[in-house]
Amino acid sequence: MTLALCTMIGRSIGGAFLVGVAFGAAFFFTHLVWVGTYLGPVPWVALAGLETVLFGVGAIPIALAYRWTDRARGHAVVWFVGVPLLVAGLWSVRELVMGSWPYSGFPWARIGMTQANGPLPEAASWVGVTGLGFLIVAACACLVQWWRAGGFRRMRGVLPAAMIVTALVLVPQFPTGDAGRMDIGWVQGNGPSGYFDDRTSGDVLAAQTAATDPLLGEDMDLLVWPEGAVDSDPLTDPATARRLTDLVARAGAPLLTNAATARDGDVFNTSILWDGQGTPQLHDKVNPVPFGEYVPDRWFYERIAPDLIGLIQREYTPGQNPPFVTVDGVKVGLAICFDVIYDSVIWDGARQGAQVYVFQTNNADFRGTDENLQQLAFARMRAIETGRAVVNVSTVGTSQVIAPDGQIIEGAGVDQAAAAITRVPLRDGLTPAVVLGGALTALIALGAITGLTIAGISRHRHRHRSARGATDA
Fold first, then answer.
1. How is 41-100 classified by DSSP, letter by letter?
2. 414 neighbors 367 (Cβ within 8 angstroms)
3. Do residues 226 and 188 touch, judged by C-beta distance below 8 A?
């Protein structure tokens, strides 16, 4: 990170773009190599290429910030504190733009999400993932300014970076209140749940049911299946509904499953709380995956790659219902696969009273890659950020039950059927990240844009005065 910032100093607009592209290509083409296992190299190159170009564009404001603030060397506070905060804010703005545009964005590669196995994750409970990323970049930018000012000849200049790092390392996780326990059964069926897997109708449901058998007869409060666990719509198919009702009766607990459901002319990726007694509780995936679960502007992309686009027949509609279900008075927050990387989905669950989270995912299309491990890192950061336990259940692995502090309670490896009942802690109370995360994100973005504008105006005025002085002389 520090070296990446150094490469942007003194660059022209074109030079900053090229440096950003070089950094982005080295990062995204390796980080997202798993995308190619689904539909081949074209989607991988397209996604990584787009992210690379956006990263290059995002490098330009940072280079301008360094250029426009170069005269601040004589102002210690501006040089050692103001400039690093501006640079960190601009980095965060780039992440926010890439995480929301185009087609709802791709917030997969955020600095704050890197700390699941790092030394700084607890701070996310105070400032959120975006805030944590901002502080990490700020610390790196402080080191850059210290080195530019003379390095070891000005040791006082390293104090801002040292203070940020010390605070990040020492800050404890914000405490949430103990609200009891819930015994949750979870099942990783390891069925043929990939988009192109060789299967017939009902094979995935059969695999999930078979993997669930060892849990039947055991005491549990909730039984959880992953995304895509039911390969027919139980809301419209009576035979599937009967099978789920029979399973719930044998389990003695409601089933939280997932299926594609058709309602009012639309198709949704839906989490379904099935108790066999009344109308099921539903939550629809908020952010279907572009070019995976639907094709935006299909008419346009079919002209470019008709055979490839023709393979994607799904057209899921974004959900709008609340991201939780209620189980015997306990609200269970939900995120379906891709939704785990969107702050608003996670925060909404906690704000509406969720005491534990269930993340349902289907990683079958990315077998043999690191995609599921990256997603697990996000799940662990969400546990820390919200102070809630997370039950992350995959069709093919890796499934894990994560404690509110991000530690692993129990799990199952990849490419194997597994089932267990885990006693999961429930939590009350909201972390500052959940309460203030949206406002802090907006403040960072507004501060960065305002700061860059002020720096640009100041630079322009200085050059104008200098030119006028030279003319008068």
1. HHHHHHHHHHHHHHHHHHHHHHHHHHHHTGGGGG-HHIIIIIHHHHHHHHHHHHHHHHTT
2. yes
3. yes
Confidence of residue 157 (pLDDT cuts 50, 70, 90): confident
Mean pLDDT for the stretch of residues 27-56: 92
Which amino acid makes up residue 159? Answer: L
Contacts of 126 (CB under 8 A, 6+ apart): 171, 174, 431, 432, 433
470, pLDDT greater than 70: no
Among 211, 206, 212, 214, smallest CA distance to 240 is for 206
Measured distance CA(419)–CA(379) in Å, rounded: 19
Q: Cβ atoms within 10 A of the Cβ of 232, count?
A: 17
Cβ of 76: how many Cβ atoms within 10 Å?
15
d(CA 358, CA 383): 11
Matching CATH number, 177-430, of 3.50.80.10, 3.40.50.720, 3.60.110.10, 1.10.1060.10 = 3.60.110.10
Domain extents in the chain: 2-174+434-472, 177-430
Sign of the alpha-carbon torsion through 185, 180, 398, 319: positive
- Condensed to tens digits (0 to 9), the pLDDT of residues 255-308 reads 999 999 999 999 999 999 999 888 999 999 999 999 889 999 998 999 988 888
Going edge to edge, which strands form the sheet with 222-224? 281-284, 266-274, 255-263, 222-224, 177-188, 418-428
Total Cβ atoms within 10 A of residue 320 = 8
Distance CA 111, CA 129 (A): 8
Of 314, 319, 346, 318, which is closest to residue 333 (Cα–Cα)?
Answer: 346
Burial class (CB in 10 A: 0-12, 13-18, 19+), 279: exposed
Instruction: Specify which residues 258 forms β-bridges with.
Output: 271
Q: Return the sign of the alpha-carbon dihedral for residues 381, 386, 390, 396.
A: negative
Kindly state the helix (H) or strand (E) to which residue 247 belongs, with its residue range: helix 238-251
Q: How far apart, in whole angstroms, are the C-alpha atoms of residue 269 and residue 287?
A: 10
End-to-end Cα separation, the chain, in angstroms? 45
d(CA 47, CA 392): 26
User: 152 φ, ψ to 5°?
Assistant: -65, -15
